[in-house]
Amino acid sequence: MKNTIKILIAAVVMICVVSCKKDSKPNYQFMPNMYEPLSYETYGEYGIFPGGQEAMLPAEGSIPRGWMPYDFENSQEGYLLAKDTLKNPIRYTKENEDAGKALYDIYCAICHGAKGDGKGPLVKREKILGVPSYNDIGRAITEGSIYHVMYYGINSMGSYASQTNEHERWQIVQYVEKLKADLEGNVHRLDIDPAMTKGVVIKEDHAPVEKGHELTEEQNNAH
Ligand code: HEC
């Protein structure tokens, strides 16, 4: 009899505990400060912030890490100023040229063609019109103008500022200049490390030649 009462009491207590659970409310929290931070939750809604949102836009004029401001405006004046004054800050090495080629083949060749003659696959299939050749005399592109149009885009060509970083854009500029020189039949620019060129003459194909194998008169005239 005594045991039956005990079992009954235990059962009633357990039923009480279980029946107190409400699915619509959070259950009892033993260490609430582990769940509820004192700081504001990322993307939380709080009246104290402008717009009621914890997530705010960066202050005006702030510059993300690793990003450099670009001083030329997205206008005709900005374009002309960049065309005349903006210079490529990287050295024209073979490595940069190769990196530029790889990026160019990804982003630009589809319209401009692997040779830069404006005859990429999309042009051949007549999906896009008006893609110029890089040696177009009327445009007379420069390192500054190439960078500028990649940064902002130009007419039906989009901007590449979000797909590429500053260094990569300048590598593409170097490669576009090479394509332009090739189209014009000119020798393209390559900066040789001064430390490497001691006692070495530079041949036209840019392979260093040992001193002593001097260029012949004829070869010299070809330069
Ligand atoms: C979707 C096709 C397309 C792609 C991709 C494209 N371009 Fe263009 N590009 C154009 C068109 C079209 C024009 C002519 C725009 C105009 O002036 O009307 C142009 C013009 C240019 C010019 C000449 C601008 C001037 O100063 O007159 C350069 C330089 C150039 N593109 C470089 C690039 C580079 C570098 C890339 C890759 C990062 C690229 N383009 C990717 C379509 C494209």
Could you give a short description of this structure?
39% of the residues lie in helices and 3% in strands.
Strand content: under 5%
Radius of gyration: 33 Å
Q: Unreliable segments (pLDDT under 50, ≥5 consecutive)?
A: 209-223
Q: Structural class, from helix and strand content?
A: mainly alpha
By CATH, the architecture of one domain is named Orthogonal Bundle
Record field, number of beta strands = 2
CATH fold label of one domain: Cytochrome Bc1 Complex, Chain D, domain 2
Instruction: Give the class-level CATH name of one domain.
Output: Mainly Alpha
Q: How many helix segments?
A: 9
Describe, in plain words, how this protein is organized in 3D:
- The chain is mainly alpha-helical and 223 residues long.
- It has a domain at 76-184: Cytochrome c-like domain (Cytochrome Bc1 Complex, Chain D, domain 2), CATH 1.10.760.10.
- Helix content is 39%, strand content 3%.
- It contains 9 helices and 2 strands, in the order H-H-H-H-H-H-H-H-E-E-H.
- The chain has helices spanning 2-19, 32-35, 76-85, 94-107, 109-112, 121-124, 143-152, 166-184, 217-221; strands spanning 200-202, 208-210.
- The protein has a two-stranded antiparallel ribbon with strand order 1-2.
- Strand 1 (200-202) and strand 2 form a beta hairpin.
- Residues 209-223 have low confidence and may be disordered.
- The structure holds heme C.
- The site of heme C has 22 residues, from helix 5, helix 7 and helix 8.
